[in-house]
Amino acid sequence: MGVRMFTDKTIVITGASSGIGKAAAIQLAKKGATVILVARREALLKDVADEINAAGGIAHWYAGDLSKVEAIDQLTESILADHSVIDVLVNNAGRSIRRPMEESLDRYHDFQRCMDINYFAPVRLIRNFLPALTRSGSGHIINSTTWGTLLPVAGFGPYNASKIALDSMANTLRMEMEDQGHSVTQVHFPLVHTAMSDATTSFKKLPGMTPEEAGGWIVKAVQQKPRAIMDMKTRVASGLYFCFPGVVEKISKFSPFSVKKRQRAVE
Question: Keyword Coiled coil on this protein (predicted)?
């Protein structure tokens, strides 16, 4: 199972049935962590747990719908009944909607769905797991977010708004809890080629990370506990945006990620 540097850690990972969450869970288990897998799709979740356990790791799985508060509470109650101490919570489950704002005016649920999964679910999970994270003595919260919270991009209004809310809450939580030994890390992913991003056909032709590479960023976050993780392009571009917002916004309109008015968008 490789170098087992996380043998003392119990890590909850949401969205663990596929993509980044699955890749991160496998890599963390190889390094000795006990991983608690959370996702909606029970059969796929069990397959990931079986794969990890068959390879000599330790994985437990709990299926639940994170779009419903009652389901989150039942899920966390079940997990905490079996694991009273949680060392790391990885809020990785997410929902992306790519559509011009004008086309979302009659689709208020675009905003609600993104907020439910990308913001309210992590907040509820943090609220429910915080005592168990505190008992660990060094609780760590990792949130999967996007470069789109740092730079302008057209077409992702509901999605980016939900992720920006998560960024802001996380920054406040970090400041309030660091004296108690808690760490909070925001992972600003660029394009990652998963089933969610591949729903937009044009994205398949763009350079991006594999789920395994993105999972490696989660492993890095667990190991180093930085405030944020992002690639150098995002770091430089966000600095330029702070200094020259008008110029960067004009350039961004030509980005392959931006959606123009009345352009067909994919959810």
Answer: no
Rounded CA gap, 59 and 256, in Å? 39
Q: Which residues contact 161 (CB under 8 A, 6 or more apart)?
A: 111, 114, 115
What's the number of domains the chain is made of?
1
Residue 103 belongs to domain with CATH number:
3.40.50.720
Quick check: is 1 in a domain? no
| Tens digit of each residue's pLDDT (9 = 90 or more) over 202-243 | 566 666 789 999 999 999 999 999 999 998 988 887 887 688
Residue 71 · residue 65 · CB < 8 Å? yes
Could you write out the DSSP letters of every residue in 127-147?
HHHHHHHHHTSS-EEEEEEEG
Tell me whether residue 262 is in a domain. no
Are residues 25 and 35 in contact, defined by beta-carbon separation less than 8 angstroms?
A: yes
Tell me how far apart the alpha carbons of residues 189 and 259 are, in angstroms, rounded to a whole number: 19
Q: Tell me which residue range forms the domain holding 237.
A: 10-252
Residue numbers annotated as active site: 159
Q: Does a structural domain hold residue 264?
A: no
